[in-house]
């Protein structure tokens, strides 16, 4: 009987691996359970077993990839210490997918949200209209609400950004104030609610 339970658990883990190898977005427990036709508790146990296996806690070697829960779902990722190797292999010389202007605008929105387009333009000292449209089109930011007094749209980041960054929440973003010259003055004058 114990062999049968072990065989079923191994089969669930194998089917999960097949699904996890092809997904581009993190998958919830329920989604994975439906995909492999197994109960959620069995899927949860199989995922924990796979994490232990990939991390080398099951007696085997630590793998070059890991299984992480990110953005409310599970997905395979390259281990952080191998990021540079993979980047070089994939083509470290290839241009980044977002322009420098888009990355700077995205950073301002991530740290200051909710924030209006004019506030971002004021911080960056350039017009950001086209960059904001690009970020919205790529699903990295979204319109949160319109200001009651001015009608200005306030923007914030999406779960897709968390997924791309490999983090669960904005609280995991690094604090930037220690990296800034005159951080004390910046911190004293910063708006309440922005990340520092």
TrEMBL record:
- Keywords assigned: Cell cycle, Cell division, Chromosome partition, Cytoplasm
SUPFAM superfamilies assigned: Winged helix' DNA-binding domain
Which Gene3D superfamilies does the protein's record reference? Winged helix-like DNA-binding domain superfamily/Winged helix DNA-binding domain
Q: By its UniProt entry, which InterPro entries does this protein fall under?
A: ScpB_csome_segregation, WH-like_DNA-bd_sf, WH_DNA-bd_sf
Q: What domain of life? A: Bacteria
Q: What is this protein called?
A: SMC-Scp complex subunit ScpB
Q: What is the lineage of its organism?
A: Bacteria, Bacillati, Actinomycetota, Actinomycetes, Micrococcales
